[in-house]
Amino acid sequence: MTRRELLSLAAAATVAGVQRVSATPAPAAPVSIAKTPTYGDDLPEIMAKMFDQIGGAERLVRNKTVTIKLNLTGSPGIRFQGRPLGSTHYTHPKTLTAMVHILDRAGARRIRLVESAWATSGPLEEYLLDSGWNVRALQAMTSKLEFENTNALGKSKTYSRLHAKNGGLVYPAFDVNRAYEDTDIFMSMAKLKNHATCGVTLSLKNCFGITPASIYGDDAGKNEPNENPGKGRGAVCHEGKRQPAASALPEKDATTPRDPGYRMPRIVADLAAARPIDIAFIDGIETVTGGEGPWIRGIAYAKPGVLVLGTNAVNTDTVATAVMGYDPQAPRGKAPFVNCDNTLKLAESLGVGTTDLNRIEVVGTPIKEAVFKFAGA
User: Fold this and answer.
1) Residues 325-345: pLDDT tens digits?
2) d(Cα 89, Cα 71) in Å, to the nearest integer?
3) Which of 161, 245, 265, 278 is most buried by its number of CB atoms within 10 A?
4) Do 340 and 204 contact (CB within 8 A), yes or no?
5) What are the residues whose beta carbons fall under 8 Å from the beta carbon of 131, sequence distance 6 or more?
6) Does the pTM exceed 0.90?
């Protein structure tokens, strides 16, 4: 490569203020879209067809341990307009039931459900019960099912340290519950939503929840983890007012902006580079628009009637962002990234996946037929 070609590549790498860290073209993989108006009995069939469109569930999971990161953001006691949590901002029990059925039939060796349950280190099963889930019915589906609250050490004796590809943007590595490393396939089951400090919360932002509050929480120990955390991660992650417990690696540069709109998109991108998502599933049958949960003023209930599935999280989130009526490559200041940097572009800069819709094969329903305009679109 000549010097002129190298300079041209470097110039092309800077898009919307995001400097590309990796010179290798970010990967692209097919993404499936399906339209369905309700969480009906045909959901397993619809989702199985989506898997077939991206290469088949059996090819992905047979004889493998599959770890599913749920989206159970915020306390189960906080509801929007009295609606079921799964109809607004939580993973819907029926999409999970359908997913477990598909994975079990495809020959998965083990199916592990994980989430860093809000402000508790208690059993995930209890948190699900508080959220209105029929845990006994889930357990009756297959003997392969396991549950793990990853907000603390849990059932393991040590944490895993996951290093971010290309060194990361804020954190070079994360200490997490071992469930996120001791797995063959990692799946993010997300909701189609906006987010206050990331613009959108899809499969990438859902995985912010893999950070244990025992280490990255506001009441984390100064030197060692607090194995009974009772708070969120505002001070450490969103605002950078303190470092995580000293047992984990600190951020790379404590002089960078403390603005959540700067920090959170970068931390989410770092997590995607440290714990790659093998299957990204986004539920937009029913959701909320204008924010990630009932604590955000101005949100509204919505029924986009759409599902999105892919094997590359950046590709999948890029397509989902377009389905929401936005430009996935929009710069800061333009919806949905009005008050934050573009998480998708930051993850792309780390080589996780492309945000170029022209490089992503969309199968099933075309984007133009699935568009449901979210806030500001």
Assistant:
1) 999 999 999 999 999 999 999
2) 8
3) 265
4) no
5) 72, 76, 85, 90
6) yes
